[in-house]
Amino acid sequence: MEAIEVKGLDVAYEHKYIIKNMNLEIPKGKITMIIGSNGCGKSTLLKSIARILTPRKGEIKLNGISIKEQAPREIAKKMAVLPQSPIVPSGLLVKELVSYGRFPYQSALGGLKQEDIDKVNWAMEVTGIADFADRAVDSLSGGQRQRAWIAMALAQETEILVLDEPTTYLDMAHQFEILLLLQKLNREQNRTIVMVLHELNNATKFADNIVGVKDGNVVFKGKPLDVITKENLYTLYGIDAKLQVDETNQYPICVDFDVRR
Amino acid sequence: MKKRVFITSIVVSILFVFTFLLAASWGSYSISFGDVIKTFFGQGSLLQRTTIWDIRLPRICVAIVVGVCLSTAGCVLQSVTRNELAEPGMIGINAGAAVAVVLLISYGSTSYYDTIGDVALFVMPIAAIIGALLSGFLIYFLSYKKGVSPTRLILTGIGVNVGINAFISLYQLNMSKGDYNQVLTWTSGSLWGSSWKFFWLVTPLAVVFLLLIMWKAKILDVMDLGDEIATGLGVKVERERRKLFFYAIVLAALATSVAGNIAFLGLLGPHIAKRLVGPVHRRQIPVAAGISSVIIILADSISRNAFSPIEVPAGIMIAIVGVPYFIYLMLRE
């Protein structure tokens, strides 16, 4: 079964259609990266999956059931969403932020139960921010802050993680660190991870499955080695790319490119 | 953090008890703290009993309800609009109440509180509540465009606020001096007409809506993280925002109906509380309520006594303290 299934999806802002009749399957237990140029509709797709935008037409299924037929809280127990650069209320502590991830499991007035506390501690441990638990989130560096957000999503205890450009504003080393963390979560706990990513070489290196989106449509999808080709990259970005395969023969690397005029 | 919350609660409680006693003892007829406490336990002279039970205590109790309502409304509005500077006075809710009262005064009778009966006594608060609710609905309706974005909500509110205030000024210019003074006292925020009747008029509803908001405290917490995260965590953001906005309007309307337009209180309490115990609402709301009560009781005591026999509206006293703090906040951000 697919983790997420998109069928005949139309999404529009006012009268402008961003996504038109899109079909896409996102496999369970794999890392899927969505790539494409600015304004191609990849973030819109992610927002529709995350229920932030309501599609005009079509269906989005989560584990085979339409998201319209599931209660918001039930979906929140299956899928965690991390938008691009989310807001941090000033003075909020890391452990408090992470504990907000337990929201779907809590009653209105009840506090954190032992199980919640265990999950929160575990999430901070895995993401390596346990030492900052009592610090304010807005006092952390970009990389630490991003890990705090991921910890919150992890505390939500979902099998699916949806992230919109989780590495923006981070330097190379910190980007790598975040992707490595997500890979570890995927490999060790079999979580399905879907993300939009801009850096092509990071995408090819960490993705099991790459989806290329252009003008609101899927133009290619599959394993990086199969789909990251000269032709596909030209279709997607309009670039002439020079590609190589890495030393272990597992993923393609774009070593140089030129914009075709 | 736990220790900090504990210490803050203790300090705020002590301050609260102290200002409470101060307000009960300080006045044109001074009563010592000891006598105040004695009077509470049924002793004390007839004069002391009358002064405290019939004059000062109802005023203090109304002040507390007003403080708690405005502070909680401020906490909610700041989260719902995700704007640090949101408060009922700034986004036109108080102005809505004011315009209703202005219309009532300019078209109604010229009789004042003590010469009129119960029905007429309640007309003004009820008109204020209706006015505040109407302007609240107007703001929500005007900012609605396939859902309400926090920014649009606050900008519309500020616009409506300016519009209504212009309308009020227009009316005030054509008023007789007596009416004008009454309106001015009212729009500046004053507790001068407070009695037990007012207390019983607003308290039951205030308690209901305060409980509803505490019930939604966790939703307020996650709404602080933005619509996208809140949606991802399973909150029906649009619907919750509408509900919470409505609750905040009702609380602001109740407070305004008995105390007029007290500015800044909805800003001061929540911000000080946030600095002290952080932005988690189940801590912030009660601490903010305590701090706001202390501020309003203190401001009212000073405004009653400092320039005696003239009484300065408590709202002006609060603004005198509030403006420097407001600027300090701006400088810090």
TrEMBL record, chain A:
<keyword id="KW-0067">ATP-binding</keyword>
<keyword id="KW-0813">Transport</keyword>
<dbReference type="InterPro" id="IPR027417">
    <property type="entry name" value="P-loop_NTPase"/>
</dbReference>
<keyword id="KW-0472">Membrane</keyword>
<dbReference type="GO" id="GO:0006826">
    <property type="term" value="P:iron ion transport"/>
</dbReference>
<dbReference type="GO" id="GO:0016887">
    <property type="term" value="F:ATP hydrolysis activity"/>
</dbReference>
<dbReference type="GO" id="GO:0005524">
    <property type="term" value="F:ATP binding"/>
</dbReference>
<dbReference type="InterPro" id="IPR003593">
    <property type="entry name" value="AAA+_ATPase"/>
</dbReference>
<protein>
    <submittedName>
        <fullName>Iron complex transport system ATP-binding protein</fullName>
    </submittedName>
</protein>
<dbReference type="InterPro" id="IPR051535">
    <property type="entry name" value="Siderophore_ABC-ATPase"/>
</dbReference>
<keyword id="KW-0410">Iron transport</keyword>
<keyword id="KW-0408">Iron</keyword>
<keyword id="KW-1003">Cell membrane</keyword>
<keyword id="KW-0406">Ion transport</keyword>
<dbReference type="InterPro" id="IPR003439">
    <property type="entry name" value="ABC_transporter-like_ATP-bd"/>
</dbReference>
<keyword id="KW-0547">Nucleotide-binding</keyword>
<dbReference type="GO" id="GO:0005886">
    <property type="term" value="C:plasma membrane"/>
</dbReference>
<dbReference type="Pfam" id="PF00005">
    <property type="entry name" value="ABC_tran"/>
</dbReference>
<dbReference type="InterPro" id="IPR017871">
    <property type="entry name" value="ABC_transporter-like_CS"/>
</dbReference>
<feature type="domain" description="ABC transporter">
    <location>
        <begin position="4"/>
        <end position="240"/>
    </location>
</feature>
TrEMBL record, chain B:
<feature type="transmembrane region" description="Helical">
    <location>
        <begin position="89"/>
        <end position="107"/>
    </location>
</feature>
<feature type="transmembrane region" description="Helical">
    <location>
        <begin position="119"/>
        <end position="141"/>
    </location>
</feature>
<keyword id="KW-0812">Transmembrane</keyword>
<keyword id="KW-1133">Transmembrane helix</keyword>
<dbReference type="InterPro" id="IPR037294">
    <property type="entry name" value="ABC_BtuC-like"/>
</dbReference>
<dbReference type="GO" id="GO:0022857">
    <property type="term" value="F:transmembrane transporter activity"/>
</dbReference>
<protein>
    <submittedName>
        <fullName>Iron complex transport system permease protein</fullName>
    </submittedName>
</protein>
<comment type="similarity">
    <text>Belongs to the binding-protein-dependent transport system permease family. FecCD subfamily.</text>
</comment>
<dbReference type="Pfam" id="PF01032">
    <property type="entry name" value="FecCD"/>
</dbReference>
<feature type="transmembrane region" description="Helical">
    <location>
        <begin position="198"/>
        <end position="215"/>
    </location>
</feature>
<feature type="transmembrane region" description="Helical">
    <location>
        <begin position="244"/>
        <end position="265"/>
    </location>
</feature>
<feature type="transmembrane region" description="Helical">
    <location>
        <begin position="57"/>
        <end position="77"/>
    </location>
</feature>
<dbReference type="InterPro" id="IPR000522">
    <property type="entry name" value="ABC_transptr_permease_BtuC"/>
</dbReference>
<dbReference type="GO" id="GO:0005886">
    <property type="term" value="C:plasma membrane"/>
</dbReference>
<feature type="transmembrane region" description="Helical">
    <location>
        <begin position="153"/>
        <end position="173"/>
    </location>
</feature>
<keyword id="KW-0813">Transport</keyword>
<dbReference type="GO" id="GO:0033214">
    <property type="term" value="P:siderophore-iron import into cell"/>
</dbReference>
<keyword id="KW-0472">Membrane</keyword>
<keyword id="KW-1003">Cell membrane</keyword>
<feature type="transmembrane region" description="Helical">
    <location>
        <begin position="314"/>
        <end position="331"/>
    </location>
</feature>
